[in-house]
Each structure stands twice: as C-alpha cells, then as structure tokens.
Amino acid sequence: MRSVRKCSRTGCGHPAVATLTYAYADSTAVVGPLATYSEPHSYDLCEEHALRLTVPRGWEVVRHDGEFAAPEPTVDDLTALAEAVREAGRPDRPVEPPPEPERQNTGGRRGHLRVLPNPVTD
User: Going by C-beta distance under 8 Å and a sequence separation of 6 or more, which residues neighbour residue 103?
Assistant: First the structure.
C-alpha cells in the first residue's frame, strides 16, 4: 500500500501535492503536480510551500497552472488496505507466543540492572 508522502521542508508534516525539480543548466526551478514516484533529485512540497517558493536572483520559477490537489487513493491502495485488515482479523490466524525472556549470560558482562537481596535486620 502506498503511504502518503509528506512535504520535504523541515518541520512541515503536511501532505505533499507538488514536486519541485531543478534544471541547473537553465537556472530554473520547476514546480509541478506531485510526481507518481519520489525521485532522488526532486522534492515533494505541500501546497503552501509550493506556492511560496522563491529562487535565487537570476533564476526563474516555472509553476503549474491550476490548483494542486492531493492524489486520490487508487483501487490498489484500497484493496491492499482491505486485505491487510481482513488478514489481521482472521479467527484461524495463528497466534504467535510472546518471546521468552532472555536468560542471563553466565560469562562476560551482565546487564546493567541487578536484583539485590534485602539485608536481614534483627
């Protein structure tokens, strides 16, 4: 299932609706609709950051005409989610036993916590 992509700007948790790429040879930044796949040399931006983007002096910004819209979930995304929920709720699904506690190692360094006996007072 595809997860929602977030804005690449530090501290921004809004969903991405646009993709920023650079054409260094042309000194151009291109802000367009959200790309289908996240690419290594592109940046996903939320609507606010896509509209407020500024570039250095001498550069040009080419922006997508129209509104940026969040991508709609596809049938594949919804089907994968339904299958995961169905699998988790199956009554005949084998239940894994909880992991056994680790045994103390008799040699070498022990863990940093120990049980100390209470001193006997008379």
Answer: none
Domain map (residue ranges) of the chain? 1-66
pLDDT in tens, 35-76: 888 888 899 999 899 989 999 999 999 987 767 766 665 556
Q: What is the DSSP letter of 110?
A: -
The pair of structure tokens assigned to 85 is 């929920």
Q: Show Cβ contacts of residue 70 under 8 Å, excluding neighbours closer than 6 positions.
A: 15, 17, 34
- For residue 16 the two structure tokens come to 């991405």
Full-model pTM: 0.54
Pair 19, 31: CB distance under 8 Å? yes
What is the residue whose two structure tokens read 């289908």? 36
For residue 17, how many C-alpha atoms fall within 13 Å in the half-sphere facing its CB?
Answer: 15
